[in-house]
Design brief:
- One of its GO terms (molecular function) is hydrolase activity, acting on carbon-nitrogen (but not peptide) bonds.
- The chain is α/β, with parallel strands linked by helices.
- The protein folds into two domains: 5-56 and 333-375, Urease, subunit C, domain 1; 59-322, Alpha-Beta Barrel (TIM Barrel), CATH 3.20.20.
- Helices cover 24% and strands 28% of the residues.
- It has eleven helices and 17 strands.
- Strands 1, 2, 3, 4, 5, 15, 16 and 17 form an eight-stranded mixed beta sheet that branches. Strands 6-7-8-11-12-13-14 form a seven-stranded parallel beta sheet, with helices on both faces. The chain has a two-stranded antiparallel ribbon with strand order 9-10.
- The longest helix has 13 residues, at 178-190.
- The chain is globular, with a radius of gyration of 20 Å.
- It starts with a strand and ends with a strand.
C-alpha cells in the first residue's frame, strides 16, 4: 500500500518500542505503516520535513471533560487537542447513563479527534460544576443509577472504556464512600476498569485505595493536603505502595484543585512516578493552572522526570490503562496517530493548584498532530 504521509527525519521517541532515534515514520490506510530511515515516497505521498521536531505516538489525555454544550464544565475537544497535541481525549464522567446518548451523537461522533469515555455511575454525570453552581453529583444517592449504567456501558463498548465515580467531601458529601461501592458493582458487572476521583476526606485516601482492583485508576493521585499520598515526613504512604503492588494505577488529573508541586516532589524523590499524566482539562482550569496536556507534562519534565518517561505516561501507559494497545504506539499496524513536539529552553512560570510557582527551564510545545494517518489542521 502506498504511503499517504511520511514524517521525515524527526527524533522519534516511542517508549512502547524503547525507540529514541532520528528516523522516518510513514502512514497508510489510517495506520502506522513503517518506521525507518529513508522511507520511499510514492506519487501522491505527502512528505513533511520534521527534522527540527520530536515525533511521539499520538498523545492520550486520560482525564478530560469535553462534553461541550452538554455540561457546564465541557470544553471543545478539537480546539483543545489542536493546541495541546492530544489525539485521544478521554472524557471522565461528564456524562452518565441518562445523557450519554447525546454526548455520543452530538459530540463524539462528529469529532475529528478521538474521544473515549469513562461513563459516570451518576444518572446525569457531572451536572452541577460551574463558576456559580457547585453540586457534587455523588452527594445524592438517588442519582446513582447502576442498572442503566451497566446497560449503557455494555451497549457502547466501542467508546466507553470504564466506569467513573467521584468521592470526597466535595463530590459525595455525607454519602462518603458508598458511591464508590456502587460504581465498583457496575464495573464488575460489565468487566471494565473503574476511575475514582478523590478530593477532601471523608473518605480517606487509604479507604479509597483499599477498594480499588488491579487496573483501576485513582485520579488526582498527587493532590495536595488533605488526602495526599505522601506523609508529613516526605515518604510515600504504605497504602499507596501496597496499591501499586497489586496493580492500581495512579493518574495525575491536574485540574483546578488536584495537583501540588509539594506532593509531586515528595513522590518523585521516592521514585514513585505517576503511571499516567493527564490534564483534567475543563472550563474552570483551561485558563490556568492546568492549561493543557503539554503544560502538565512540562511540569514533570521540569521536576526531573526524563522526557521519555513523561512521554510514556501520556502514550503507552495511558493506552494500557484504557486496554487499547492499538493506541499510544508507532508500531506498524497501530492507529496512525502521532504528535509533533518541541522542547523549548528558557524560563517558564508554572503554577500548581495551591498557588505555588515553579520556574522551569524547559517547556514542551505542541507543533502539530497526525490523526488517522493524515496531517490534521482543523479550521
Amino acid at each position: 500500500m502506498p504511503f499517504d504521509l511520511i514524517l521525515r527525519g524527526g527524533r522519534v521517541i516511542d517508549p512502547s518500542q524503547k525507540l529514541d532515534a532520528v528516523t522516518d515514520v510513514a502512514f497508510a490506510g489510517g495506520k502506522v505503516a513503517a518506521v525507518g530511515s529513508g522511507l520511499k515516497a510514492d506519487p501522491g505521498t505527502e512528505v513533511r520535513d520534521v527534522s527540527q521536531l520530536i515525533v511521539t505516538p499520538g498523545l492520550i489525555d486520560l482525564h478530560t471533560h469535553v462534553y461541550w454544550g452538554g455540561t457546564s464544565l465541557g470544553i471543545d475537544a478539537e480546539e483543545f487537542c489542536r493546541t495541546s497535541g492530544v489525539t485521544t481525549a478521554v472524557d471522565t464522567g461528564s456524562a452518565g447513563p441518562g445523557n450519554f446518548a447525546g454526548f455520543r451523537k452530538h459530540v463524539i461522533e462528529p469529532s475529528q479527534v478521538r474521544i473515549l469515555a469513562y461513563l459516570h455511575v451518576s444518572h446525569a454525570g457531572i451536572f452541577g460544576f460551574s463558576h456559580r453552581i457547585m453540586v457534587g453529583e455523588s452527594e445524592e444517592l438517588r442519582l446513582m443509577n447502576p442498572i442503566d449504567a451497566a446497560k449503557v456501558a455494555d451497549e457502547n463498548r466501542d467508546l466507553i472504556v470504564g466506569i467513573k465515580v467521584r468521592v470526597g467531601l466535595h463530590a459525595s458529601g455525607t454519602s462518603g464512600i458508598v458511591p464508590l461501592d456502587i460504581a465498583l458493582e457496575v464495573a464488575n458487572e460489565v468487566g471494565m476498569p473503574l476511575m475514582a476521583h478523590i478530593d477532601h476526606p471523608p473518605p480517606s485516601y487509604e479507604d479509597v485505595l483499599a477498594r480499588l482492583r488491579p487496573g483501576d485508576v485513582l485520579t488526582h493521585a498527587f493532590r495536595p493536603f488533605p488526602n495526599t499520598p505522601a506523609t508529613a515526613q516526605g515518604t510515600v504512604k504504605r497504602a499507596v505502595l501496597d496499591a501499586r503492588e497489586r496493580g492500581v494505577l495512579f493518574d495525575i488529573g491536574h485540574g483546578k484543585g488536584s495537583f501540588a508541586f509539594k506532593t509531586a516532589r515528595a513522590m518523585l524523590a521516592n521514585g514513585f512516578y505517576p503511571d499516567t499524566i493527564s490534564s483534567d482539562i475543563h472550563l474552570l482550569c483551561i485558563d490556568g493552572p492546568a492549561f493543557d496536556q503539554v503544560t502538565t507534562m512540562s511540569k514533570f519534565l521540569c521536576m526531573g522526570m526524563k522526557l521519555s518517561d513523561v512521554i510514556a505516561a501520556s502514550t503507552v501507559n495511558a493506552a494500557m490503562a484504557l486496554r487499547r494497545p492499538e493506541l499510544g504506539s508507532l508500531k506498524p499496524g497501530c492507529v496512525g496517530d502521532a504528535t509533533l513536539i518541541s522542547v523549548r529552553e528558557g524560563q517558564f512560570d508554572y503554577e500548581d493548584v495551591v498557588g505555588e510557582h515553579l520556574i522551569g527551564d524547559r517547556k514542551i510545545v505542541s507543533e502539530g498532530v497526525v490523526i488517522g494517518g493524515r496531517w490534521w489542521h482543523p479550521n
